[in-house]
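Quick illustration, no need to memorize.
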Amino acid sequence: ASFNSVYSLTLKSCQLPEMPIIGSSILEYLDLSNNSIGDAYSWASRTGLKWLDLSNNRFSGPMTIPTVIPSLQHLNIANNTWSGSIQGPNFAGSLLSLDARNNSFTTLSFPESPSPVVEIRLDGNSINTGPAEDNFDYVPNLQIFTISGSQGSYRFPNFWANHPKIYQYEAADMETSEALPGVIASPDLRIL
């Protein structure tokens, strides 16, 4: 099927084996969650997508979606088998929210220029390599950061003192010997 003049499209739980061809340049909201999709999404660069849900599909390999969809603001790729790195360019452009829970990512890096991202959810990945404390300066608007259940060896640095906007941090089911004094002192922290 081809959708040429659609603004919002939900094809959730439709047992789709592949991505539909979407020719709409006005498409902003697309929900393809709970399908069996695992193929390319190159068509997406021709859309004005702001919200994309590809959770619970069969995507695997490196994740490059935000770099091919510069208008993207909210991306949910949870519960697939994406792997490798979530790199700085993935946070470029207008991305505000990334839900990458329960994949196989091993590396996280931030862009070398400020990013507008406010929410990053990485629970259930295997992060072994991540950004140094000063790299968190490139995500000055970060408010929500979750890493619970990570099986990797990386321990996120204590960046809280420099990020007063953080109000939710979740790191359950992880071993750490590091104290979190900055978290306790943060005046905006509501959920720990």
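The longest strand covers residues 81-86.
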